[in-house]
Amino acid sequence: VLIAAYLLTGTVGVEIWQKPFLFGYYITDALVTLLIGFSLFLSFPQTLYNIHRAHVKKTLKNDSLYEGLLPLVSPLLLFVLLTVWVVLSPGNILAKQPRLFLWMVGVAFSNVICKVIVCQMSSTRPELFHWFLFPLALVVYAAISGLLGWTEEVVLAVFTALVTVAHVHYGVCVGRQLSEHLNIYIFSLKKRVPE
């Protein structure tokens, strides 16, 4: 879909995204609808089916279905909180700060998923609630209740900075820990010389 969007833009021009396409709807409306539809009706059910099948065949790392579904809790709650913020934002935050909001969404999801991946690789139990969810829940509540008012964009910027710094910190810490554990330099397979 992304390649088709690039080819369409390159062939017709960027104006195609700003003109009504069919029945007054824009192409972006159709793409968003397809993305949500495929996620809800194909990807998510397939994920649940795979977890169920692994549970029935007893091929899960843990015997419990709860343990198999545990890694889905934080990403799902993150998605719900961010969707609530966008839909119920009195200041229409996504329209006012789309790049900043999408940056924060990408970094937050990246951090949550990186932690899930590290837990899977190390056969450790993931935390039920990622710590990002608590301040995010406060921000979303304050935003949709109108407590933030005109400062909603400022709070978004501060939260985005917090999430970004926390993600970089997590990446550096994981890199250092792997480097020490495997006795290698980061981004190199050469062994460290003992001191």
Main structural class: mainly alpha
Order of helices and strands: HHHHHHH
The portion of residues assigned to helices is: 55-70%
> How many strand units?
0
Radius of gyration, in angstroms, nearest whole number = 21 Å
The low-confidence parts are none
In terms of quaternary structure, the protein is: single chain
Alpha-carbon distance between the two ends: 52 Å
Number of domains: 2
Mean pLDDT: 87
Percent of residues in beta strands = under 5%
Main location: membrane
Family: Belongs to the CDP-alcohol phosphatidyltransferase class-I family.
Keywords: Lipid biosynthesis, Lipid metabolism, Membrane, Phospholipid biosynthesis, Phospholipid metabolism, Transferase, Transmembrane, Transmembrane helix
GO cellular component, one term: Golgi apparatus
Please characterize this protein's 3D structure.
By secondary structure, the protein is mainly alpha-helical. It has two domains: 1-59, no CATH class; 63-194. It has helices at 2-12, 27-56, 65-88, 93-96, 98-121, 133-144, 152-182. The longest helix is centred in the C-terminal third of the chain and has 31 residues, at 152-182. The protein is globular.
At a glance:
This protein is an all-alpha fold. The chain has helices at 2-12, 27-56, 65-88, 93-96, 98-121, 133-144, 152-182.
What key phrases describe this protein's structure?
195 residues, mainly alpha, 2 domains, 70% helix, 0% strand, membrane, phospholipid metabolism, transmembrane
